[in-house]
């Protein structure tokens, strides 16, 4: 088989081991892709795609069956197959490549496979080496305790590990015995991350030579268990481990550079910068079939290494190898003849192959096809020697001396030329390397700058988010404060309303008490005065009787003198009464000066009430006193004047022994018409409400409806206040009654004696009524002689309205 083939790249994520926390940072999306969370920005993740992706549940067998076994077919075609495991320390490279007895990895499966499929003609050999601190040691010869082996390029440009032991295998057991001993020689040490951490890169090489008539196909399998990249902060390495670690990391860095340079198509690939890349030259951009297994470890502490490993894998899968069949010509070589000796052409050899040569064995990890320099599996036979060295020896032995000298000169010249070319190539390569490194550094700087800006942007975004959050919190706090203020204001408003209400009630109570006190004072004084008068009168009468019985005088003169005496005492009494009344009126007049018109009306009403009570009892004297006192507050009221005159007449008549029928208190008929002020539930508020029709019409007014509305509202407000809620100020009676309808009885004067007669009813609201109101009908100071003054909740008969109102519930009253 020939042609080119890209390196096959697969990924394997190992399960979490006992001491590790489960990790969701790596997600296997499909059998060929996975996503890894960005360690710098956890909301972001990177997605990768490879030929195969194995999760923690995948077995050794799965990997073998799907991705490894098929490659071994190429071995029988004389190709070199290189499988290498790459990954951070403890990611499972050794587990995958080597495995354990219970869970065998790739190596034992390959050996089984080879022996199952080989024929008796096939010859299988093995070599096993380790690269420890950038030196090569033979693991079949004691590993790092044996001498280090030089890595050279032979004349054909092949990389060879000199003196590496190659052992023949006849069966699987042979291999197991040799390998288990050799594996123990491998440099392994304990770190914090892996108790059996590989401190070296191990390369097991299995060669299969199959004779095919005149040629022998030499297939090879290189199984490479790389040491893992290490973060010394995590591994907790001691100084010795640090040196190992630095060598491991350096060789892996060069491996990365080689892959990078191959991807870039660079003219110089830095294989020579480490022993590892030098030896793997054939697998990387050389002539072999390549399989890269990237091992991943779960856990956030490995996240950056995981991403590095996956980036490395992505770059490696782009590398294309030009496959080269390793073939050996079995035909006997023609006898050495100087004409046949040609300098070997470096271009004829494969670009990169690893060959090992030593004193006892001469075999290669990869062998150039058809080349006479191909190492043989059997000990070298003189007749078919393929080594350049033996060719050179036979050539020199047949040359004459002078010819030998000139041949030596030629060789020297060629050697010098070669050195010169090598020097130039190296200088050029060095320049390329420096240029690439500069580019690399520049790229890294660019990436670092981009990363810095991204981090800055993230930090600013976070800051913006935090500021928004703060603003929201402040706004909420402000709103809460505003609510609190509103609530407090409402409470204060309610408190003020309560205080106002209380003050009003107190003022009213005080006024009422004051008035009651004055009335009772006045009554007491009057009663006392009258008692005194009565006493004086009785004493005077007793004295007069005594004097009359003692004196002996003619009957007419005695009659004349008795009559004069009576006249005197009567005049005197009247004078006393007038004086007393005058004194009272003076006292009232004094008070009157300081009173408001409303207070005057109140006082007049109070006295009128008392006067009426005496009037009803036909105690004309006392009634007269109170009517007069009432008059001192409303001196211009004509009706009151007339009432006083009536009472005075009654007194006169009484004195004359004439029976006197009680004076009617209503000037208009048997039934006094209630005024709005007398409607229960309204008290004196309605006094100022003028319900007089400007047109002089009468009307009916449903006070009961108004009262109920008002009481309903008052109860509602009271309840509100008891709950501590704000209640509106009580509306005025005008406001409340404005929508209430009344029936207006229009009157028409038909010219006869009866005067105006009610003819029809018309509905009007109190509001509209009030708009057109004329003078105040019930104003005590109005001087209206046709209407009685209205002072309190009692009607003119002195009966409480509340009692009457019960009987009138729901009935329309005539105003
Ligand atoms: N697929 C797996 N299933 C179960 N256990 C595993 C698996 N892969 C690795 N391990 C365990 O993880 C631990 C580390 O594995 P291993 O030694 O193979 O890592 P490594 O990559 O070779 O590390 P180092 O580079 O340090 O040599 C071992 O205990 C191994 O048994």
TrEMBL record:
Compositionally biased region (Low complexity): 383-402
GO cellular component, one term: microtubule
Keywords: ATP-binding, Microtubule, Motor protein, Nucleotide-binding
Acidic residues compositional bias, start-end: 690-701, 733-742, 782-797
Disordered: annotated span: 327-420, 462-497, 660-815
Biased composition (Polar residues): 705-715
MF-aspect GO terms: ATP binding; microtubule binding; microtubule motor activity
CDD domains: KISc
Compositional bias annotation for Basic and acidic residues: 411-420
Domain Kinesin motor as annotated: residue spans: 6-319
Gene Ontology BP terms: microtubule-based movement; mitotic spindle organization; spindle elongation
Record-linked SUPFAM superfamilies: P-loop containing nucleoside triphosphate hydrolases (SSF52540), TPR-like (SSF48452)
Sequence ranges of Basic residues compositional bias: 801-815
Family per similarity comment: Belongs to the TRAFAC class myosin-kinesin ATPase superfamily. Kinesin family.
Name of the protein in question: Kinesin-like protein
Species classification: Eukaryota, Fungi, Dikarya, Basidiomycota, Agaricomycotina
């Amino acid at each position: 088989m020939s042609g080119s083939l890209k390196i096959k790249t697969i990924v394997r994520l190992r399960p979490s081991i006992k001491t590790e926390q489960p990790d969701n940072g790596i997600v296997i999306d499909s059998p060929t892709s996975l996503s890894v969370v960005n360690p710098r920005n956890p909301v972001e993740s990177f997605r990768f795609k490879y030929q195969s992706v194995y999760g923690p549940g995948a077995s050794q067998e799965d990997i073998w069956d799907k991705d490894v076994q098929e490659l071994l077919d190429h071995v029988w075609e004389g190709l070199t197959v290189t499988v290498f495991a790459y990954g951070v320390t403890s990611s499972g490279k050794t587990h995958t490549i080597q495995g354990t007895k219970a869970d065998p990895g790739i190596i034992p499966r390959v050996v089984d496979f080879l022996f199952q499929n080989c024929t008796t003609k096939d010859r299988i050999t093995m070599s096993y080496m380790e690269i420890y601190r950038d030196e090569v040691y033979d693991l079949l010869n004691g590993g790092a305790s044996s001498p280090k082996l030089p890595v050279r390029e032979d004349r054909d440009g092949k990389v060879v590990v000199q003196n590496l032991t190659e052992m023949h295998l006849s069966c699987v057991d042979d291999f197991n015995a040799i390998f288990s001993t050799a594996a123990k020689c491998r440099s392994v040490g304990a770190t914090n991350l892996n108790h059996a951490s590989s401190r070296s890169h191990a390369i097991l090489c299995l060669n299969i030579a199959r004779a095919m008539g005149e040629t022998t196909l030499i297939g090879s399998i290189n199984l490479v268990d790389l040491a893992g990249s290490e973060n010394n902060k995590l591994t907790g390495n001691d100084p010795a481990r640090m040196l190992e670690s630095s060598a491991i990391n350096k060789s892996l860095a060069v491996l990365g550079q080689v892959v990078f340079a191959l991807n870039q198509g660079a003219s110089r690939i830095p294989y020579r910068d480490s022993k590892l890349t030098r030896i793997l030259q054939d697998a990387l951009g050389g002539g072999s079939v390549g399989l890269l297994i990237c091992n991943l470890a779960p856990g956030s502490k490995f996240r950056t290494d995981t991403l590095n490993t996956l980036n490395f894998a992505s770059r490696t899968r782009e590398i294309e190898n030009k496959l080269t069949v390793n073939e050996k010509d079995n035909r006997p070589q023609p006898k050495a003849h100087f004409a046949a000796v040609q300098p070997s052409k470096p271009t004829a050899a494969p670009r990169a192959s690893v060959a090992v040569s030593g004193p006892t064995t001469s075999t290669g990890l990869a062998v150039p096809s058809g080349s006479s320099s191909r190492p043989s599996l059997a000990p070298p036979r003189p007749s078919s020697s393929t080594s350049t060295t033996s060719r050179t020896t036979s050539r020199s032995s047949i040359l004459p001396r002078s010819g030998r000298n000139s041949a030596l000169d030629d060789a020297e010249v060629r050697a010098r030329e070669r050195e010169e070319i090598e020097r130039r190539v190296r200088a050029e390569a060095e320049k390329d390397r420096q240029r690439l490194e500069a580019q690399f550094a520049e790229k890294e700087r660019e990436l670092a700058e981009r990363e810095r800006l991204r981090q800055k942007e993230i930090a600013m975004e976070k800051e913006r988010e935090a500021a928004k959050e703060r603003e929201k919190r402040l706004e909420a706090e402000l709103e809460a404060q505003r609510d609190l203020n509103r609530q407090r204001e409402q409470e204060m408003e309610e408190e003020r309303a309560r205080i106002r209400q209380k003050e009003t009630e107190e003022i009213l109570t005080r006024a009422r008490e004051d008035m009651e006190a004055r009335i009772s004072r006045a009554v007491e004084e009057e009663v006392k005065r009258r008692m005194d008068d009565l006493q004086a009168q009785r004493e005077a009468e007793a004295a007069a009787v005594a004097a009359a019985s003692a004196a002996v005088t003619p009957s007419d003169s005695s009659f004349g003198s008795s009559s004069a005496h009576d006249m005197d005492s009567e005049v005197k009494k009247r004078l006393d009464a007038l004086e007393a009344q005058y004194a009272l009126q003076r006292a009232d007049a004094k008070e009157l000066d300081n009173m408001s018109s409303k207070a005057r009306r109140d006082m007049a009403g109070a006295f009128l009430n008392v006067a009426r009570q005496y009037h009803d009892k036909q105690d004309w004297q006392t009634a007269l006193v109170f009517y007069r006192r009432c008059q001192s507050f409303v001196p211009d009221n004509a009706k009151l004047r007339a009432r006083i005159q009536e009472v005075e007449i009654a007194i006169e008549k009484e004195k004359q022994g004439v029976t006197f029928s009680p004076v009617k208190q209503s000037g208009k008929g048997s039934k006094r018409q209630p005024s709005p002020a007398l409607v229960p539930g309204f008290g004196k508020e309605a006094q100022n409400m003028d319900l007089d029709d400007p047109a002089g019409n009468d009307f009916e007014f449903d006070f009961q409806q108004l009262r109920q509305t008002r009481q309903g509202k008052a109860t509602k407000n009271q309840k509100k206040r008891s709950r501590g809620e704000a209640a509106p100020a009580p509306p005025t009676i005008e406001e409340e009654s404005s929508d209430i309808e009344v029936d207006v009885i229009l009157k028409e004067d038909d010219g006869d004696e009866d005067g105006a007669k009610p003819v029809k009813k018309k509905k009007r609201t109190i509001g509209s009524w009030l708009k057109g109101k004329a003078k105040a009908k019930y104003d005590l100071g109005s001087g209206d002689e046709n209407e009685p003054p209205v002072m309190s909740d009692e009607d003119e008969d002195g009966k409480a309205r509340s009692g009457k109102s019960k009987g009138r519930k729901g009935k329309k009253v005539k105003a």
